[in-house]
Amino acid sequence: MVARNYRSPRSRSELDLVGWDGETLCFIEVKTRTTRAVQPAEAAVDPDKQKDLAGVAREFLRKVRGNPPYRFDIVSVYLEPGAEPDITLFRDAFAG
Known about the structure:
Strand content: 35-45%
Radius of gyration: 14 Å
Number of domains: 1
CATH architecture: 3-Layer(aba) Sandwich
Distance between the termini: 20 Å
C-alpha cells in the first residue's frame, strides 16, 4: 500500500487504498456493511461514484513516475453480528 484515504480538493470522493499488485497500480474502494438485507456492498459503487473515483485516480497518477497500468478494485466487507467477517475482492471491478 502506498496511500490510504487519498483526497483531492477537486472531488468529493477519496481513494480508500492505493497499492501495487506487481506492476499494476490498484485503486481500491472498500465498502463495509453490517447486513446483507438491502443491497450488496459493492453495488454502492454506482456510475457516479466510479466517475468520481476515476477523477481522483487520474490526479494521483499525475504524481506517479512513468505510465503504469492501473485498475479499480472493490472490497466488500460484511461484519454481521455473530458471524466471521466476510471479505470479497472484486478485481478490475470497473473501467476508469
